[in-house]
Amino acid sequence: MELELRIFTEPQQGASYDDLLRVARAAEDAGYGAFFRSDHYLKMGSADGLPGPTDAWITLAGLARETKDIRLGTLVTAATFRHPGPLAISVAQVDQMSGGRVEFGLGSGWFAEEHAAYGLRFPALGERFELFEEQLAIITGLWSTPVGETFSFDGEHYRLTDSPALPKPTQSPVPVVIGGMGAKRTPALAARYASEFNLPFVDVDFATAQFARVDAACRDIGRDPATMTRSVGLVLCVGRDDAEVARRAAAIGREVDELKQNGLAGTPAEVVARLGEWHAKTGISRVYLQVLDLSDLDHLELVAAEVAPQLRG
Q: Which of 22, 151, 214, 304 could hold 187 in an S-S bridge, CB 3.0 to 4.6 Å?
């Protein structure tokens, strides 16, 4: 099996830009494929959330200049947070700043409380999905419009007239990541726009069924399903022995048995076996390791040294 490991962080739970920079550089030095972050403005659960939220695309702009090789992205930017025109400009600029290392995750948005906390409109699910769909069309349309031509869009929620569709990202196209649990509309959108379909924090059986729906949606529009990267997100808790696993679980407020069932927990050998099961049943080629204790850089180094080499063919 061959699996790429990526680092995924949740800075709304409590992290400064400097914290994220340390993790991104450690991930780059250790050979991980990418550093991703969530796009949220409010903490969840019992975390204190201090010093407060950091903006996803401002963070990635900084990291674009302070890292060299690691890819950078969001899981996922909410369509309710930003207008698609300015968002397309921001992402294109960060892609330029990074030398073409950005991957763009977009979703419909789901966390009502953060919208209320910062004065953002939070429409019903049906309208959020419409916003999501129109944003995909607009952002990818702006990026793909040839230089010297203009882009217009007349939708239910957004209207763009004779946009110069600038700036252009360095990559053409920018990889688009879509994920979600929906049985019909989400797979159809992914088939049309995404280079990668991601499923965060689901079990193997659900992932197998959802990836099959995405494959079917690809075939429905004449796309080869093999052109869609399959990925999952799993919380990480690895230790050299049971005591170290228990210590890391306690540090993030979780139980070892629960993490072994729902995430990636245990010794390196146990985690490699778990990833082998995922790969065999779902055909994934990429895993986002959700790292919740951003101060524990040894955790990243352990996985890079003792898990990653066993996933390279």
A: 214
